[in-house]
Design a protein that fits this description.
Oligomer: single chain
Order of helices and strands: HHHHHHHHHHHHHHHHHH
Helix content: over 70%
Distance between the termini: 59 Å
Strand content: under 5%
CATH topology of the largest domain: Serine Threonine Protein Phosphatase 5, Tetratricopeptide repeat
Number of domains: 2
Length: about 270
């Protein structure tokens, strides 16, 4: 294996990487330690399959953050979705290992002109967030804040109903709900949609009481886009925290402004 790396045999290295398991990990480690940037450039130029291997190498190298970010940025705009996903995963792994160094890279991606790069920024934060490290919660959530108003479909699908609902609300529930409450003061309907959709996943049952406080405010918004997201969140609450949610929503039926979403959520839950 080391011979293939030493000889620069891309075909042999790709066979080792494709084998998975210990062979794949050993091949990536060898390339990361022996000219990681050279290997990444060669693999990227070779094929889409090679580009994914390049991302794996960049995830493990100790090169400078800006250099890693530049190579992964190229991969994040690749025409193949699996390569783009690999780039986001690689950035997330680097962010988890070298948080302070890589956070500025992720923050710059969050405001990038390319929606693929912005989406990768969202996905990259999932890895460190999933560790439950409370000291990372504030900077990670601040990094995502500029993306809340992003109307690009691939970005919004990855944000509220994706990473925030699936990872943050599960691993960092208190910090996440605190930020949701702050974000709920916005008038921007995309921001409010993301707030509500964050509360539409299974993890919402863990913060049911606080979630209902946020949704009670959002339920007053009569814009269809926001109202649909609020209904989705309330429906999820009736599934994952029925004892709290159903009783609360039944009381909302007496409130003319909140009754429509309460009625819809209760109807969907039956």
């Amino acid at each position: 294996m080391h011979g293939a790396v030493r000889d620069g045999d891309i075909e042999a290295v790709l066979r080792l990487w494709s084998a998975g398991g210990a062979q794949s990990r050993a091949a990536v480690k060898a390339m990361a330690q022996d000219g990681a940037l050279r290997w990444a450039d060669s693999l990227l130029a070779h094929s889409s399959h090679g580009a994914r291997a390049a991302a794996a190498v960049l995830a493990r190298t100790s090169e400078e953050a800006e250099t890693i970010g530049a190579r992964l940025h190229t991969l994040a705009t690749h025409e193949e979705s699996r390569v783009r996903a690999a780039a986001a995963q690689a950035l997330g792994l680097q962010l988890t290992e070298r948080f302070a160094e890589l956070l500025p890279v992720v923050q710059s991606w969050a405001t990038d002109p390319s929606p693929s790069v912005r989406r990768a920024a969202v996905e990259a934060t999932a890895q460190p967030a999933s560790t439950g490290n409370f000291s990372w919660a504030e900077p990670l959530l601040r990094t995502l804040a500029p993306l809340l108003s992003d109307r690009c479909p691939q970005v919004r699908r990855s944000l509220g109903p994706g990473v925030l609902a699936r990872v943050y609300l599960d691993s960092l529930p208190d910090d996440t709900v605190e930020h949701l409450a702050q974000w709920s003061t916005s008038h921007n309907e995309q921001v409010l949609w993301n707030v509500a959709m964050t509360l539409s996943g299974p993890a919402v049952g863990r913060v049911a009481g606080k979630a209902l406080i946020v949704l009670r405010k959002l339920a007053l918004d009569d814009r269809p886009y926001v109202r649909a997201a609020v209904t989705a969140a309330l429906t999820s609450l009736t599934t994952h925290a029925p004892r709290i949610a159903v009783a609360r929503l039944e009381r909302w039926l007496a409130d003319d402004e909140r009754a429509p979403v309460a009625r819809a959520a209760l109807r969907h839950s039956t």
